[in-house]
Amino acid sequence: MKINELKPGMRAVSIGGRVDNIADARSVNLKSGGTAQVADATISDETGSIKLSLWDEQLNMVKEGDQIYIENGYTQEFRGETSLNVGRYGKLKKI
Q1: What is the pLDDT of residues 5-40, one digit of tens each?
Q2: Contact between residue 82 and residue 76 where contact means Cβ atoms under 8 Å apart
Q3: Does domain 3-94 have CATH number 2.40.50.140?
Q4: Is 88 exposed, middle or buried (0-12, 13-18, 19+ CB in 10 A)?
Q5: What SS3 state is found at 4?
Q6: Domain residue spans in the chain?
Q7: Which residues pair with 91 in a beta bridge?
Q8: Which pTM does this prediction carry?
Q9: What is d(CA 75, CA 9) in angstroms, rounded to the nearest whole number?
Q10: Predicted local confidence at residue 25, as pLDDT
Q11: Contact 30/23 with Cβ under 8 angstroms?
């Protein structure tokens, strides 16, 4: 699958790309209580780019310029922008 094929609400997304940039991490309050660190990254392939949310331990797994592969991720729309998430059941791998 390619980035330009992604639409909001997709499940079981497996896709590869290059990390173009990673914004500074910020702390967010979770619905379940507690806090987490999250940062927005941009990944791209030859067809386009998409925002990827990196949570907690994922922040230390990748850096700008890395090639990554996401298995079993999902997409959502937030403030009119489609974004990609690894989620609880997905995997983020550096390749």
Answers
A1: 999 999 999 999 999 999 999 999 999 899 999 999
A2: yes
A3: yes
A4: exposed
A5: helix
A6: 3-94
A7: 71
A8: 0.90
A9: 5
A10: 95
A11: no
